[in-house]
């Protein structure tokens, strides 16, 4: 499985890269059909006028390609690690639903 990690307006540190690889490997260890993953991390520099802070300005997006489907998720948070955690939770739900549909599909054809 190939994981591509890109950063937009931020540098991908080894700690962030290790965190992503660990979470995605953990998420897909029971699903061997994943062809590739693309993760894009973005930091939006827009400032909230009232608090003078960027709110929910760390964005994590991922595309997972499995046979017959392409899964996409996006998550935002105040820091990158939280947005990565939210992203993996969303993708876990999508992968679980996809796997459930794959198991149910052969029984429908019989």
TrEMBL record:
It comes from the Bacteria. It holds the Pfam family Ribosomal_S30AE. GO terms for cellular component: cytosolic small ribosomal subunit. Keywords: Translation regulation. One of its GO terms (biological process) is negative regulation of translational elongation. GO terms for molecular function: ribosomal small subunit binding. The keyword Secreted does not apply. NCBIfam families: yfiA. Associates exclusively with 100S ribosomes, which are dimers of 70S ribosomes. Belongs to the HPF/YfiA ribosome-associated protein family. Short HPF subfamily. This is Ribosome hibernation promoting factor. It comes from Acinetobacter kookii.
């Amino acid at each position: 499985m190939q994981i591509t990690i890109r950063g937009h307006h931020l540098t991908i540190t080894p700690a962030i890269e290790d965190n992503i690889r660990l979470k995605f490997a953990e998420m897909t260890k029971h699903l061997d059909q994943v062809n590739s993953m693309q993760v894009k991390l973005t930091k939006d520099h827009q400032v909230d006028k009232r608090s003078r802070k960027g709110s929910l300005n760390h964005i994590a997006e991922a595309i997972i390609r499995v046979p017959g489907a392409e899964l996409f998720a996006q998550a935002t948070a105040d820091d990158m690690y939280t947005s990565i955690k939210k992203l993996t939770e969303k993708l876990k739900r999508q992968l679980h639903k996809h796997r459930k549909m794959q198991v149910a599909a052969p029984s429908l054809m019989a």
